[in-house]
């Protein structure tokens, strides 16, 4: 006895159409029904071959072909060969088109493109968390960019903001009493960005930070003399590294991030990533 067969055609992976086919088959749980997936349909010859095979086996076809040219050809060939077919995306595209103000892209694989972008973003966020605050300098060599600066120059918020743009960022606080990791000096200058800030602005930020922690705002951490010492040290390190420097004194995170993104994009063009 011939097993009923559903042929799944797509000009992408065909996972969407196959999932619909399997969900449908599950409603006929007392029967054995096969699925044959034919992905990456790129020309009319592939369509004709699949339709003729479905006809020979008394099968049906469901598809998620988005190319207008291939869809028109598919409709013609299935009609000529009297092969029953189900257009999974077509009715939905038409319905959404009636309420949308733009036309559909009609590009195959858009869902998987979005998936790749999503997972790239998640990977960048996990990277930022793992290599935050100089936790593991080994990450410097894997980063798209390494941000350095004294405490409270918004290195971590900036790293997370950039991670949501799918940029892998590591950051390192510069403290005069703490030796710099050797990995920092293995990086080319264009992969490092230094952050500096006005000392009085930093004094205010650190004083407020101490208050939220229930500590006296007169601690050495917020003292202007100590801040000047740290900033002088930071500038000297940045000079030795020959890296780009951004003054964040009056900048929002978004503004600083845009400058860093410009650096990353320029690096990608000139040096690759």
Explain this structure.
The structure is a single chain. The chain is α/β, with parallel strands linked by helices. It folds into two domains: 5-97, Hypothetical protein af1403, domain 2 (Rossmann fold), CATH 3.40.50.10550; 114-271, Rossmann fold (3-Layer(aba) Sandwich). It is 46% helix and 13% strand. It contains nine helices and eight strands. It has helices at 15-25, 44-56, 68-80, 90-97, 110-130, 155-163, 199-212, 224-241, 253-271, and strands at residues 5-9, 34-38, 60-63, 85-87, 145-149, 169-173, 192-196, 245-247. The strands form two sheets. It has a four-stranded parallel β-sheet, with helices on both faces. It has a four-stranded parallel β-sheet with strand order 6-5-7-8, sandwiched between helices. Helix 2 packs parallel to helix 3 (68-80), helix 6 packs across helix 9 and helix 7 packs across helix 8 (224-241). The longest helix is centred in the middle third of the chain and has 21 residues, at 110-130. The radius of gyration is 29 Å and the shape is elongated.
Keywords summarizing the entry:
single chain, 273 residues, alpha/beta, Rossmann fold, 2 domains, 4-stranded parallel beta sheet, 9 helices, 8 strands, 46% helix, elongated
SSE blueprint and pairings:
Elements: E1 5-9, H1 15-25, E2 34-38, H2 44-56, E3 60-63, H3 68-80, E4 85-87, H4 90-97, H5 110-130, E5 145-149, H6 155-163, E6 169-173, E7 192-196, H7 199-212, H8 224-241, E8 245-247, H9 253-271
Parallel strand pairs: 1-2, 1-3, 3-4, 5-6, 5-7, 7-8
Helix pairs in contact: 2-3, 5-6, 6-9, 7-8
């Amino acid at each position: 006895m011939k097993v009923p067969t559903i042929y799944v055609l797509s000009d992408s992976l065909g996972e969407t159409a196959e999932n619909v086919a399997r969900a449908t088959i599950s409603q006929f749980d007392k029967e054995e029904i096969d699925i044959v997936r034919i992905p990456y349909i790129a020309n009319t010859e592939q369509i004709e071959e699949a339709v003729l095979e479905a006809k020979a086996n008394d099968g049906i076809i469901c598809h998620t072909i988005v190319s207008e040219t291939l869809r028109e050809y598919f409709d013609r060939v299935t009609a000529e060969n009297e092969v029953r077919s189900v257009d999974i995306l077509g009715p939905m595209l038409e319905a959404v088109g009636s309420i949308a103000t733009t036309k559909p892209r009609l590009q195959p694989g858009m869902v998987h493109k979005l998936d790749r972008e999503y997972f790239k973003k998640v990977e960048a966020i996990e990277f930022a968390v793992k290599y935050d605050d100089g936790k593991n300098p080994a990450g410097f060599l894997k980063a798209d960019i390494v941000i350095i600066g004294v405490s409270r120059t918004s290195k971590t918020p900036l790293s997370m903001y950039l991670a949501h743009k799918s940029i892998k960022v590591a950051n390192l606080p510069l403290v005069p009493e703490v030796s710099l990791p050797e990995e920092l000096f293995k990086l080319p200058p264009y992969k490092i960005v230094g952050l500096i800030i006005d000392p009085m602005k930093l004094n205010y930020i650190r004083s407020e930070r101490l208050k939220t922690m229930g500590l006296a705002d007169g601690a050495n951490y917020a003292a202007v003399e100590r801040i000047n010492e740290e900033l002088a040290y930071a500038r000297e390190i940045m000079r030795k590294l020959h890296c780009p420097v951004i003054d964040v004194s009056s900048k929002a995170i978004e503004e600083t991030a845009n400058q860093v993104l410009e650096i990353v994009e320029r690096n990608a063009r000139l040096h690759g990533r």
